[in-house]
Amino acid sequence: MEFENLLTLMKTMSDSTLTELRYEEGGVKVKLAKQCGKSRAVESVLDTIVEKENIEETMDEEGQIVKSPLVGTFYAAPSEDAEPFAVVGSQVKKGQTLAIVEAMKLMNEIESDYDGTVAKVYVENGQAVEYGQPLFLIV
User: Fold this and answer.
1) Which residues lie closer than 8 Å to 80 by C-beta, 6 or more apart?
2) What pTM value is reported for the model?
3) d(CA 121, CA 61)
4) CA pair distance 65, 118, nearest whole angstrom
């Protein structure tokens, strides 16, 4: 489902008297529901669409993908005022820390499985990440 179509669906739902709508297209499920007269879309559906597009985009790129081993919050640096562990152009070695993913108040270091250069960082600092979501492209 294209993003513009989803926005149209949400607007139509908002303007109608319907209280709930379920829609499925191409393996993407959308559930819209009104609560207290206001429409509300499930945010995870939007995240899933964006994540699916990101994963499809990475399949065309050459190199090794470092994926998130867990669900949590991505942090590029050890603290707010510190430099990021790795940025585009950084030379990295296998076992080197690339980022941190916080899950259930635990800080989990994400290490590179490959030697090479960071060609792309797929997520932003403070962004929620899912299990298996691409984080870095190493070439």
Assistant:
1) none
2) 0.57
3) 13
4) 10
Evaluate whether 123 touches 135 at the Cβ level (below 8 Å): yes
Please give the pLDDT value at position 11: 77
Q: What's the chain's Rg over C-alpha atoms?
A: 18
Task: Tell me the domains of the chain and their CATH numbers.
Answer: 3-46 (no CATH), 62-138 (2.40.50.100)
Per-block average pLDDT, block size 10, for the chain (139 residues)?
A: 72 76 74 56 51 52 88 92 92 94 91 93 93 93
Q: How far apart are the first and last CA of the chain?
A: 32
| DSSP state for residue 24 in the 8-state scheme | E
Residue among 95, 97, 87 at smallest CA distance from 117: 87
Q: How far is CA 66 from the centre of its chain?
A: 13
C-alpha distance from residue 38 to each of 13, 46, 55, 88, 135 (Å): 10, 18, 32, 42, 35
8-state DSSP, 94: T
